[in-house]
Design brief:
The chain has 456 residues and is of the alpha/beta class. Helices cover 40% and strands 11% of the residues. A 7-stranded mixed beta sheet has the order 1-7-6-5-4-2-3, with helices on both faces. It has a 4-stranded antiparallel beta sheet with strand order 8-9-11-10. It starts with a helix and ends with a helix.
Length: 456
C-alpha cells in the first residue's frame, strides 16, 4: 500500500471528522456564499505523480475549486428546477459512498431490496397502484428515455415486431404526439433512433401549455388505428401547466396509444391537498417520469422511472452473460435500465422518506408553492413586470421592461439569487422555480426586493 494511502487508512476517523467539519461550515455559510457566480478561470494542474493524501487534497480543493462553487444548495437558487439536500438525504449520500453497494443486482446484498422498498414508498406517495413497478435512474432525461424505450417495444408488439430483437428497421416510423414536450423528450427520441422529428406537436389550449385534447383526438384519428405514443405533461417547465390526464385517458376507448407522463417535478402536486387533482389519472399511465433531485431534495443524481409493463421493460434492457444470474422472479435492476453497475441511488431517498415521511415532504412542497405565489403577488405590483401565466404551482414566469439576459446576469452578480431566462409564447422571460427545502416567504421577499432595485 502506498504511503499516502496507508497514512489515510490509519488516520481515517480524523480525516472523516475534518471533512465533516468542513461540510458543516459550507452549509452554515450558504447565506454568505454567492448563490451563483461567474467563476474565475482556474488553470489546470498537472496529474499528481505521488498524491498529497486526503488532507492535502482537501486543502487543494478549498484553495483552487471551492471558491468558484455556487450556493445552489441554498434557498434562493431559483434557476432550472433545483432542490437542495435535506439533512437525512445528505446522511444517506454519505453512507451510499461508505457502503459502496452495487445496486444493480440482488446477489450478496440487501441493497436491491432497499431500492424496491423505496420505489414502493414513492409510488404510494404519488398515488400509483400496485401494478406500477419502478427503478432508479440518474435523472428525468434517463427516466423519459427508459419510458419511451418501453413504449417503442409496446408499439412493436402491436405490429408484430420486437424492436429489442429485430431492430428499428423492422418497425418503421412511430408517431409520437405531445402538446409541449420537454427538451429531454426530443433528446430521448434521438437516442432511441426514433428521431426528433417523430414528435408531432399537437395544438395547446389558448394561452396555455396544456394540450388541446380535441386536437389530440384529431391527430390520433388521422393515424387510422395505427398505435402511437402520447407524451403528456404533469407540470411544464415554463409555467407548470398540466395536461388533462383524465380526458386523455378517455381517448383510449377509441384509439390505441401508450401514455407516457413526464411528471419530473409536477408529480409532487400529489402531496398538496389543493393541487393533487392536477395529477388525477397518473396511476393509469403506462410509464411515468419523476425526478427526485428536484422536489424530494435528494442530491444529484436521483430519479425514478415507473411503468405498468415490466415484461416489456425486461425485454428491452435485459443483460445475459455467463457470470450474471438468470432472471427468476423479480428481475435484477440491471435488466431494467441502460446501466449495469451503478451506485445505490435509492439510499438518499430512503433516508429522507424514513426521516420526514409524507407529512414532512408535504410541508416542503406546500411551503415552496406558497413562496412562489407570494413572489408572484409581489411582482404583480412592480411597474413594467408582467406575469406571463398564473402561478399554478411552484414556478413564476414573468417578463420585464429590460433585456432578460442582462437582468438575469445582474441577479447572479448580486449573489442574492439565481434565475434562468426562457422564452414563453415568443416573449423573452425569466423563471423563478421554488423547490428547495430551506426556501420560505422571506426568501421570496428578498428576491422581490432585489428585482425592484435592479429594474429601471
Amino acid at each position: 500500500m502506498t504511503s499516502p494511502l496507508a497514512g489515510d487508512l490509519a488516520a481515517l476517523p480524523d480525516l472523516l471528522q475534518t471533512t465533516r467539519d468542513y461540510a458543516v461550515s459550507v452549509l452554515a455559510g450558504l447565506d454568505d456564499r454567492p448563490v451563483a457566480r461567474d467563476p474565475a478561470s482556474v488553470p489546470a494542474a498537472p496529474l499528481p505523480a505521488e498524491g498529497a493524501g486526503t488532507a492535502g487534497a482537501l486543502a487543494e480543493f478549498q484553495r483552487r475549486w471551492a471558491p468558484g462553487f455556487s450556493g445552489s444548495a441554498g434557498p434562493r437558487y431559483l434557476g432550472f428546477v433545483t432542490g437542495g439536500t435535506t439533512p437525512a438525504a445528505l446522511a444517506g449520500d454519505w453512507l451510499t459512498g461508505t457502503f459502496d453497494q452495487n445496486g444493480s443486482n440482488r446477489s450478496g446484498s440487501s441493497a436491491a431490496a432497499l431500492e424496491d422498498e423505496t420505489v414502493g414508498w414513492l409510488g404510494e406517495m404519488f398515488g400509483l397502484g400496485a401494478e406500477h413497478s419502478g427503478t432508479f435512474v440518474s435523472g428525468a432525461t434517463m427516466s423519459n428515455l427508459v419510458g419511451l424505450a418501453i413504449a417503442r417495444e409496446w408499439v412493436g408488439d402491436r405490429r408484430g415486431v420486437s424492436v429489442a430483437r429485430h431492430g428499428l428497421a423492422a418497425l418503421g416510423e412511430i408517431p409520437v404526439l405531445s402538446g409541449a414536450a420537454h427538451s429531454s423528450v426530443f433528446k430521448s427520441l434521438s437516442i432511441l433512433g426514433l428521431g426528433r422529428d417523430s414528435l408531432r406537436p399537437v395544438a395547446t389550449l389558448p394561452d396555455r401549455e396544456a394540450v388541446d385534447v380535441t386536437a389530440l383526438a384529431a391527430a390520433l384519428e388521422a393515424l387510422d388505428g395505427s398505435p402511437a405514443i402520447v407524451v403528456a405533461n404533469a407540470g411544464t417547465v415554463n409555467t407548470v401547466d398540466f395536461d388533462d390526464l383524465r380526458a386523455i385517458l378517455a381517448l383510449r376507448e377509441r384509439y390505441p396509444f401508450w401514455l407516457h407522463v413526464d411528471a419530473a417535478f409536477g408529480g409532487f402536486a400529489a402531496l398538496s391537498p389543493a393541487h393533487a387533482h392536477l395529477v388525477d389519472g397518473l396511476a393509469e399511465a403506462d410509464s411515468v417520469c419523476v425526478d427526485l433531485h428536484k422536489w424530494l431534495n435528494v442530491p444529484y443524481d436521483g430519479a425514478v422511472q415507473f411503468t405498468r409493463h415490466r415484461d416489456l421493460q425486461v425485454r428491452v434492457f435485459q443483460n445475459a452473460a455467463a457470470y450474471l444470474p438468470p432472471i427468476t422472479g423479480t428481475p435484477d435492476h440491471f435488466h431494467l435500465t441502460p446501466e449495469n453497475s451503478r451506485r445505490l441511488r435509492a439510499l438518499t431517498a430512503w433516508f429522507t422518506l424514513a426521516a420526514y415521511g409524507v407529512a414532512g415532504h408535504r410541508e416542503i412542497v406546500t411551503r415552496a408553492i406558497d413562496a412562489a405565489h407570494h413572489l408572484g403577488e409581489r411582482l404583480q405590483a412592480v411597474p413594467g413586470v408582467q406575469l406571463l401565466a398564473p402561478v399554478r404551482l411552484n414556478v413564476v414566469c414573468f417578463a420585464v421592461p429590460m433585456d432578460v439576459t442582462d437582468l438575469a446576469q445582474a441577479v447572479a452578480d448580486s449573489g442574492e439569487a439565481f434565475l434562468t431566462p426562457t422564452v414563453y409564447q415568443g416573449k423573452p422571460a425569466l423563471r423563478a422555480a421554488f423547490s428547495n427545502w430551506r426556501t420560505t416567504r422571506a426568501d421570496a421577499d428578498r428576491v422581490a426586493g432585489l428585482l425592484e432595485n435592479l429594474l429601471p
